[in-house]
Amino acid sequence: MIIVLLAWIFAILFLLPTISGKSLGFLTKDKIRLGLDLQGGTHLLLEVKTEEALLNFLTRLKNEMMDSLKTKRIFALEGEVVNGKIELLLLNEEMIPPFEKFLADEYPNLKIEDVKRVGDRVKITLNLDPKEKQNIENSAVDQALETIRNRIDQLGVTEPEIARQGERRILVQLPGIKDPERAKAIIGKTALLEFKLVDEEHDLQEALSGNVPEGSIILYGIRRDKTTGRVVKIPYLLKEKTLLTGDAVKDARVAFGEFNRPYISLSFTSWGAKEFERITGENVGKRLAIILDGTVYSAPVIREKISGGKAIIEGDFTLEEARDLAIVLRAGALPASLGILEERTVGPSLGKDLVEKGVKAVIIGGLLVLVFMIIYYRFFGIVADLALILNLLLVLAVMVMLKATLTLPGIAGLVLTVGMGVDANILIFERIKEELREGKPYKAALDNGYSRALLTILDAQITTLIAALVLFQFGTGPIKGFAVTLSLGILINLFTAIFVTKAIFDGLFQVRVLKELKL
């Protein structure tokens, strides 16, 4: 009876914040978490463009190879990535043997696919091992999944659903999100941060006319006229080689400068700080461009070697833009851009209506069962009803404790739990009736009824539990919500329908209150 009393206390204390909005503080302040279908929110099905991740990897590999070949005096005049392959132009045929040895030693995953003569030069096509390509694409999806999770965590969304679907799709459900457009912008922003030197050796205008020097690229910055709102693009001629990326960033925060204008303050990791110090020390007097997703935000002159691991990104930011930019920089860059395959928004009013209908279904169904049990089994029905109510309260209390989410299918799981709880008690009571008809004493009939019904109850409950666990393992979103409440309901039902009711009856027999069974 003490255990039964403690079960009631546990359930009430954990549900107190949900029922009254207040808590005693020493247990929990959490309320029952409602899923996307109950409180509204945003549903997104995203696709990671893995071909971009592969292209970025091959481009970095090509640049790294070109630098390494120079140090080994293997002369490669140019290199580019074409159709997922690296093409290099060697000075002459004499470069082929040392290049093959270099490739075998340094890049065993790259294989020579084709060798062609182009005048006196030799054009070599390199292809990446298929398994390595697959690993890069899988890694890109995994990295995107983790990056999205980090960004959503910083948005403060309660109980988001983020899961991989298929080879390169990611499901994102954001319950209670009030600004879906902002959420989509933060989730989908690639946030590739790069530091490149400005090419001041060549003429920008000549490059804009089509004569871009080898090893250089043209990118644009954006300036917004605050009076007219007109946006002006500013071209920059930059060295193609990236000196540092966002991988070196440890933290990004919003700060305020002159005239209270927001900017992004960056702090680097220990190795990033050393690298930034080396880069600025070797390039004093030159301009260093800070680029985010292909847009140049600033290109200040390096006045002196910068130590301390700090940098800033200035731009024409609003405060919200600066905050969102800081979030994505802290969470890290996506390995590739995302495409939105499916988007649904559930309004909070619809969610509220679903909650009300779901609760009404549970209450009406529960009341009908409670009344039937009292009419048909009299006092035993009252005890079964108390156990059933305790069952529902314990399921919800455990969900609060585990921080599980209640969905609309989860409410259906609760309704099914009510039916299974009643089923267990009916099996027990009918067994007790059979014992009484055979002339057994009341206490013996009670004990035999419970012991003989136990195997039948376990068989029914455990087979349903197995099905619920399979649904939880392989289902997603709403199906998992149904499986969670059903699994908890079955496990707790074994406690309430068997242990709790038996404890009450045994207690009443001991104090001689129950002198005759009324079934």
Can you say what the CATH homologous superfamily of the largest domain is? Multidrug efflux transporter AcrB transmembrane domain
Q: Pairing-aware structural class of the strands and helices? A: alpha+beta
Task: Give the overall silhouette.
Answer: elongated
Q: What distance lies between the first and last C-alpha atoms, to the nearest angstrom? A: 23 Å
Strand order within the widest beta sheet: 11-10-16-15-9-12
Low-confidence stretches: none
Question: What fold name goes in the CATH topology slot of the largest domain?
Answer: Multidrug efflux transporter AcrB transmembrane fold
Number of strands: 19
Fraction of residues in H or I helices: 40-55%
Largest sheet: 6 strands, mixed
Number of domains: 3
What value does the average pLDDT take?
A: 85
The CATH architecture of the largest domain can be given as Up-down Bundle
* Highest CATH level, the class of the largest domain: Mainly Alpha
Q: Strand fraction band?
A: 15-25%
Please give the radius of gyration in angstroms: 34 Å
Number of helices: 14
Walk me through what this model shows.
The structure is a single chain. This protein has three domains: 2-7 and 15-39 and 348-510, Multidrug efflux transporter AcrB transmembrane fold (Up-down Bundle), CATH 1.20.1640.10; 51-132, Gyrase A, domain 2 (2-Layer Sandwich), CATH 3.30.1360; 189-344, Gyrase A, domain 2. A hairpin with a 3-residue loop joins β7 (161-165) and β8 (169-175). The model has no long low-confidence stretch (mean pLDDT 85). It is built from 14 helices and 19 strands. It has helices at residues 2-20, 36-39, 50-71, 96-106, 130-155, 180-188, 204-208, 270-282, 319-331, 348-377, 379-402, 408-437, 442-474, 478-510; strands spanning 33-34, 41-48, 76-82, 85-90, 110-118, 121-128, 161-165, 169-175, 193-197, 216-224, 231-239, 244-245, 249-256, 262-268, 288-292, 295-298, 310-313, 338-346, 405-406. The chain has 519 residues and is an alpha+beta fold. The strands form five sheets. A six-stranded mixed beta sheet has the order 11-10-16-15-9-12.
